[in-house]
Amino acid sequence: MNNHDFGGKDIPHIKLEPDTTIEELINIYSNSGFNGRKLGEAAKLYAKMIDDNATICLTISGAMTPVGFGGIFKSLIERGFVDWIVTTGSNVYHEDHFAWGLPVKQGHHEVDDMILYEKNIVRIRDVFVKFYETLEAQDQIIQKIFADSLEKPFTTAEFCNKLGKITKYKSKYPHRSFISTAYEYDVPVYISTLKDSSLALNLAIQRIHNKQYNLDFVREIIEQGAILYNSKKSGIVEIGGGVPKNTAQQTGPLLDQILRKNTGGQNYIIQITDAHPDTGGLSGATLQEGKSWGKVHNAHKDMITVYADATIAFPIIALYVINNKKQRKPKKIYKKLDAYYNKLKNDFLKSI
Fold first, then answer.
1. Structural domain tally of the chain?
2. Phi and psi at residue 133, to the nearest 5°
């Protein structure tokens, strides 16, 4: 890399017109500077992943579904722009409110939470849900779904597939659920920390009645590595950081450090984050730092970090690829997980 020459693009004097398109807006961003430039570059990198037929993982941290972003994830799945997902349990849990018609309202962040508590209103920043009409109703749905299933050891992909199937065929508005769409398109949805969510809390009733739940977390780690192993090219679009970010990125170290496959990690990564690297935390760790762990192929290209609020930046990136890229054939990875797993397993056993 040589970033020390005066040979870059001219900075344009930006002009916006009433009919400016999202493609033109992304070009404006990418030809400017600072995080606007990174936003434009990230949108174009996502388009490159699609053009290269990469296997694309979407990681979702933070409270994205309570603000309605599940609809964006659904649109990307339907167009073949997301092949597998790693998210938090809370994003899966709150997404289901929309499918079952449970109330989620705009509220306000300047409130007295003592008063909200007395009114049975639960707050997620400036989004309100009802304690009984939303959360308690959702709890009853989850408890019924998982009262008589998952008798054998399971992965969170199987957990979400089961939830997606019930949502698709039993809920009032299945088209309002990216979990239902993931089931329909065979997109595996992994929950990076199942126990850290209301989904797991709702298994407590059955566990008290001696029902066993055996999460095969090692199986799903291998499955995730197998997705990378069986992909010619692979990329991640990361909303936030946290455990979902690391879950997707640790596929490289699993293959190279543990299984000695020397695959090199991800070909592309986009991260939208407000975390910074100086704290030493994983959420803020630069994508380039991941090269030292074997998480990425090349620390010098195809790695873009946008320091921005994901609720602002992600819809712009998503709209760009939705408007400018042709729909891809779904990879239907969920149905291929056993084959992917067995190939990785057999290749490893042959090598030792």
1. 1
2. -65, -25
